[in-house]
Amino acid sequence: MKGYVVCVYKSINNEEKLKEYAVKARIAVEKYKGKFLIRGGRSTSNEGENSPRVVVIEFPSYVEANSFYGSKEYQNAHSILKGYAIRQHQIIEGV
After folding, report:
1. Is 65 in contact with 94 (CB distance < 8 Å)?
2. I need a surface site. Which of 27, 42, 61, 87 has the fewest CB within 10 A?
3. Distance of alpha carbon 29 from alpha carbon 27, whole angstroms
4. Can you give the pTM of this predicted structure?
5. What whole-number distance in Å separates Cα of residue 84 and Cα of residue 23?
6. At what angle do helices 15-31 and 72-80 cross, to 10 degrees?
């Protein structure tokens, strides 16, 4: 079964740090055969709080998605966002 990274941002305090993070995170996504399905874009909030950004990445498997998150490459990218973004990040097994 496929694995999905679902990341819902609650706030972004520094767009430049977000761009720096995105460049490095993409390297890890590609290494683990991920495919961006959603990366920002227009949105409509029908219930709950509005989010400034949502990202969904599809991986070949749930295991691969978890390997991506725990990888040195991704953790190096992730460290760039500390103090600059608040988000909810989940890995979900899909169909």
Report:
1. no
2. 42
3. 6
4. 0.92
5. 16
6. 170
CB 8 within 8 A of CB 33: no
What residue type is assigned to position 83 of the chain?
Answer: G
Domain boundaries of the chain, sorted by first residue:
3-42+49-93
**C-alpha–C-alpha distance, residues 42 and 84, integer Å:** 22
Kindly state the tokens that stand for 8.
Answer: 């819902």
Top CATH class of 3-42+49-93 equals alpha beta
Q: Per-10-residue mean pLDDT for the chain, 95 residues long?
A: 97 96 96 96 90 96 97 96 95 95
| Integer Cα distance of 26 and 57 in angstroms | 10
Give the sign of the dihedral formed by CA 30, CA 32, CA 36, CA 37: positive
Q: What is the mean pLDDT of the chain?
A: 96
Please tell me the distance from the alpha carbon of residue 2 to that of residue 17, in angstroms, as a whole number.
30
Say if residues 56 and 10 touch (Cβ distance below 8 Å). Answer: no
